[in-house]
Structure formats: structure tokens, C-alpha cells
UniProtKB/TrEMBL annotation:
GO terms for molecular function: 2 iron, 2 sulfur cluster binding; electron transfer activity; metal ion binding. Residues 1-105 form the 2Fe-2S ferredoxin-type domain. This is 2Fe-2S iron-sulfur cluster binding domain-containing protein. Keywords: 2Fe-2S, Iron, Iron-sulfur, Metal-binding. The lineage of its organism: Bacteria, Pseudomonadati, Bacteroidota, Flavobacteriia, Flavobacteriales. GO terms for biological process: P450-containing electron transport chain. The keyword Iron-sulfur applies. It comes from Flavobacterium caseinilyticum.
């Protein structure tokens, strides 16, 4: 089953992406699959913040882990709604999620 996730890129263009829930992907990998400008330099280990995004609507997300919190405490352009895309697995509960990519570091 796929879920619909909307991601606003750094130029303000909103992309409606079909995200598969059966491939163990996360938001960073989804962005890369659709060729959105997300580096993912650390490969999804919560060590670089190049996949930082802002959560724009109220969709239940997994709790932020210690590694993600630590990385965001050192990252640039952090807001109260910041998350690392690599730390958000794609599940059916993400249906309708709206995100905006953070500026590049």
C-alpha cells in the first residue's frame, strides 16, 4: 500500500509523492528516490542533518530518539517542528503528511 506525502522543496514547489509502506523506506530515501535535493550524507544514521525537514501538519510521527535530538541540537535552521527525514519510517500512519525541506546547511 502507498501513502500520499506532500513535500515542499526549497523553491516552494509542493511535490505529491506516493510512498510505499512495504519497502522499509524512510522520508530521506523517499526524497532521494524522487530526486528531491536531499543529501543524506551519513546514509541515514542521524549524523549529518542534511535531510532535516519541517513538519507542517498534525500527523502522528514516531518519537524523536536521542541521536536525532542530539543532531538537531547542533544543526542550522532548526525550528520547533524540525525532524530528520532519515528517522521517519514510512508507514500507513503517515498518510497525508506534509513536510518542507529545511535550507541547506
Amino acid at each position: 500500500m502507498d501513502v500520499l506525502i506532500k513535500i515542499k522543496d526549497r523553491e516552494g514547489i509542493v511535490h505529491e509523492l506516493q510512498a510505499p509502506t512495504d519497502m522499509a523506506m524512510n522520508i530521506m530515501e523517499l526524497c532521494k528516490a524522487y530526486e528531491l535535493p536531499v543529501e543524506g550524507t551519513c546514509g541515514g544514521m542521524a549524523m549529518c542533518a542534511s535531510c532535516q525537514c519541517y513538519v507542517l501538519n498534525d500527523v502522528a510521527l514516531p518519537e524523536m530518539g536521542d541521536d536525532e535530538e542530539a543532531m538537531l541540537s547542533e544543526a542550522f535552521y532548526v525550528k520547533s517542528n524540525s525532524r530528520l527525514g532519515c528517522q521517519i519510517p514510512i508507514t500507513e500512519s503517515l498518510e497525508g503528511l506534509e513536510l518542507e525541506l529545511a535550507p541547506e546547511n
